[in-house]
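Hi P.,

Sorry for the delay on this. The queue was packed all week, but I finally got your sequence through. Input first:
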Amino acid sequence: MSAKPAHRLQTDIAVVGGGLGGVAAALAALRRGRRVVLSEEYPWLGGQLTSQAVPPDEHIWVEQFGVTASYRSLREGIRQYYRDAYPLTDAARRDPQLNPGRGRVSRLCHEPRVALAVITKMLAPHLSSGRLVLLQPHVPVAATTVEDVVRSVTLRHKETGRETVVEAAFVLDATETGDLLPLTGTAYVTGAEGRDETGEPSAPEHGDPANVQSIAWCFVFDHVEGDHTIERPEDYEHWRSLAPDFWGDAMLSFTAPSPRTLKPETRTFNVNPPYETVGTAEAHGDDPGDLDLWVFRRIAARETFLPGSLDSDIVLANWPQLDYLGGSVIDTPDRDAHLRAAKAQSRSFVYWLQTEAPRPDGGTGWPGLRLRGDVVGTDDGFAQAPYIRESRRIRARRTVVEQDVAVAVRGHGGPAAFEDSVGVGMYRIDLHPSTGGDNYIDVECAPFEIPLGALVPVATQNFLPAAKNIGTTHITNGAYRLHPVEWNIGESAGELAAFCLDRSLTPADVHSKPELVRRFQAVLVEAGIEIHWPEIIGY
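Then the structure:
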């Protein structure tokens, strides 16, 4: 029996990958009147914010400036959803900067399903109009490129195997690991560049394409009466005995290196603590925020809701102990094995918490810890997808290096400006332990801009990166990889594709002519995309 012929679609812009960058790219192109096909591998759109379940990592000025208008709409939409649908206390309902989880990592710690609801609402009118076609769950499996022009991308339904060939004037890669780069023949790099190539002080002497930041398979839990201990994992002893040389203890412990001092540091784990004992970090430069694992990324705090609404806080686990160091998931035949191992490590940590973790009262284990798959849309309590920190990255017309943005190298913490800026971002250069055996790299960073040249491939003409796959290095990706920056990258990529289609240009044309850069920047500013910082100091 012959296979069914592939379904074919034609569109203006194909956006492959429905994470934050992909959603922002699609919205930007749609508001310019363009037709878009958007594909996503997992059941939920939103990537690191939803299917990976990680609340937003943001800079300390996020409530005032430093994000795009549409990203601000996403944030405010999340808060409004809680006000409309949840039994908030009067104080929480009146709080203009409502933080439902009151976690330390962010001023907006929330449940991933709420972000999904807001993203769905933002896309709804475009789905109704028919200008947006959404393909889920689909993965890219092939592409056709002729003389540096991508003609089509083939997407495969993960469950049925049915293929759809999408022909588009522009193709944007918003996948988590830059999956379209090898398929389209777009030049790219992976892993760590060496100092001998980039001159970056924090880089290793020589490059290693397989040395990437660890991934982590997150999970969500609460604590209630009863015994909710999961079945002992068959490979538990393996993970229980794992103790990297630089860790200071076993991975299955409350000890992990401090990102800034690299000295082993033992975190606390206070189950359902009184609200008065915790708070949101006021200055990322002074408070790493993760000293208590319960409140670090808590996504629903009992005190936010009317008495009796929650039996327990709800907590998202994205902790150092979940960082998987066993190997890269990029350009390796062992990708699936590494993904299974990353999830197995997290599963063993759950079992350790329930059975062996030291409690403040001198006992061991919290059998009342309960995985909450309903919160993340899975049966097993783990996120739908692994948290990906590092992608393939295009060989770009401009690559951002540590010397551009690091406070120590630049000699000051003022904004790192680029004449061709298409957005802004801010985060410390924050690299988790890597598959090459490196410890944390945590470096003071200036408020930075996103250069247009970092979005333009050296050769491919109608292809744009729209996520963590822009022209950064292994080092600078550590700052450019976070939620609002990925959204800004995607939004600017979507705007650039529409700008080029309206004027019969290529991104290289725009980048090469200062007058076109200025015209494009004016379009971005009109769309609510900040392209420059005020005079502030990085941390």
